[in-house]
C-alpha cells in the first residue's frame, strides 16, 4: 500500500478546528497595536523627531541623518516595550517574496559591557550582505553589496519579536534592486502629472496619491496531503493528477459557508493582520474547491502593496498553525479555476476626491472623464507593457484558461460610461463650439452620477475593468508582487497625462478656451483608443478574432511578452518617464527571464523524478500483479475460457507497458532538451528554448501519468489524488 498517502489521509480524520481567542470583541481595541504609526510616534518621539518623520513623508524622501538617532531611540523604546528583541530592514528583492536579516538590539557599550542599542545609522541605512539576490548583472559579485534605506512612507511594524523597517534595496551604484524603488518613483510621477491636470479643474489640489485595493485569492491544502505531494512542495502546483469527478461544476463552494477549520484560520489571520494595521475586511470561498479570498479596504498604493506582501507572508505562517499550507500559485490544479490578485487602482486628491468616481457637477465630471479617457489611452498604448508586468511562468497557465482573463489586454467600461464617451465624440464639433452646444454637452455630463449608481453591470471576463470608482486590473497573478503592475500602470498613466496636458496647453495657447480644449483632446483620444474598449465576453473565441481585427496583441509566450519591456513604447514610459534607467530595465528583464527558465527547469526535474521514482515503479508493480493473476487464470482454465476471462487484463497489461515506455522515452527526450537549452548564453534564446522545447514535455508526460492514475489499483497509487487534495477542509 502507498503508505504516505494513506497515512496523510488518516491524519485528516483527526483534524479539528483550532480555537482562536480574540483579545477583545472590538477590533479597534487592538488594531495597529504592532505598528509604529502616527499615534505611537507622537508618544515615543520628541517633537523635532516627529516633525522630521512627517516632513520626510510629505516630500517622499528619506530622513535627515542628524535626526535619525532621535527617531531610532524612540522606535527602539516602543519596540522593546512591545516585546521586540531584534530588528530587520525588510525589503522586496526581485524574488517571489520579501527578505529580512534579523539583528539583535545588543551591542557593546563603551566599557565593554552589553547594552541594548539601535542607532540612527542602523535605522536609516544598512548594508546587508545580500549578494545572492538576483540583480540581472547589475552587481558583479566583487561589488555585490547593496544597501537598504528606510522608506518613511511605510511605518515600521513588529512581527513576533522582530521590529521590521520597510526599506528600499539599492546597489552601490544607485540602481534599484527591488520592487519598491520603481513603485515609489512611479507613484511620484503620477502624482506630479495628475496634480498638474487637476489644476484645470481645482486649483486647491496639491497632491494626488494612488490607491490600491488588492483581492488575494489562494488555496488551502491540508499539510499532511501537501507533504505527500513533492510537486506541490517544490513547485507550488500539481504537475500531475487526473481531474476529480466532481470539482467545481455545481458552484457549491463559491460564497458557500466557510468550513470551520478554514474559518479559524481566517480569524487567526485577520487578528494578526489587524494588529499590523491592515484594514482586512472581506473573506469568502472562491469558485474552486479549497479556494478562498481575502481583501482589505483600499489604501495608499505603496502601503497597500507592503501590506499585501506582509499578508502573503502571514498567510504562510498562520496556515501552518492550522495544519494547512497556502498555495499562491496561479494554477495549482489543472482543469479548475486558478488564483488571481485583482489590483483595484485609482487616483485620489489631497482635497478628498477619488478621480475615478463621478463628481457632483459638470466640472468634476469632466475631470472624471478626463482621467478615465487618459487611463484608457495609456492602457491602449501600453497593452504590451501591462501584459509584460503580469505574465510569468505561473500566471501563463491561468491567463487565457477558460475562467481567467485572456492574454489580450482590453478595458471594460460598462454601457453607461461607454455611452458617455460616445456622446463626447458625437457632440464635440470640429468647429468652435457654440454656447448652446457647450451647455447641452455639460448638461449631459452632469448626469453621470445617477447613471453610475444604477449601473450594476459587471464584467468578470475583462482583464482591466472599470468598476464604478476605480479600475480593476484582474490579470495580475496571485503570487505576484503587485508593485510591478502598479508601477507600470501608474507610470503609463503619468506619461499619458503629461502628453494630454501638453496638448491641451498647446490648444489654449492658440486661443481655444480651456473647456473646449479639453473636450477636443478628449474626443481625439476617445477615437484613438477605441480598439481597447470591449464590453463583451473576454473568454469567448469570437473575441480573439475580433481583437486581432482591431490590431490588439495576444501574447501567451512569457519570453515574447517580456521582450516588450525593451521596445520603444515601454522605454518611453519607464526610462523617459524616470522610473528606471535603461540598464535597470534590461537587468529586470534578465532577472525575469532567468526566473522563467528556472521555474520550468525545476518543474521538469521534479516531474522527471516523480515519473521514474513514484509512478513507473507503481505501475509496474501493479502490472506484475496483473501478470500473476493472468498466469493463474491460464493454469486454472482451458485455453478458450482463459482468453475471455483474461482479455481485459491483458489489455491493461499492454496499456501499462505502452504508457510506462512513453513516459520513459519522453523523460529522456526532455532531459536532453534541457541539456541543449542549458548551454545557451543569451537570456532570451534560453527562455524561448525552454518555453518551446522543454515545457511541452510537462504536458506530454503528465498525460500518460494521469491515464495510469485511472487504471492502477487505488491502494497502490502513491500521490494524493485531486479529490483528496481538493476536499479536505
Ligand atoms: P469586488 O470587486 O469583488 O466586488 P470589493 O467591492 O470588495 O470587491 O472591492 C475590492 C477592492 O477594491 C477592495 O479592496 C476595495 O477597498 C477596493 N476599492 C474600492 N474602491 C476603490 C478605489 N476607489 N480605489 C482602489 N480600490 C478601491
Ligand atoms: Mg473585484
TrEMBL record:
Residues of the GS beta-grasp domain: 85-174
Gene Ontology BP, a term: glutamine biosynthetic process
Superkingdom per UniProt: Bacteria
Stored SUPFAM superfamilies: Glutamine synthetase/guanido kinase (SSF55931)
SMART domains: Gln-synt_C
Domain GS catalytic: 179-615
GO molecular function, one term: glutamine synthetase activity
Family: Belongs to the glutamine synthetase family.
Name used for this protein in its record: Glutamine synthetase
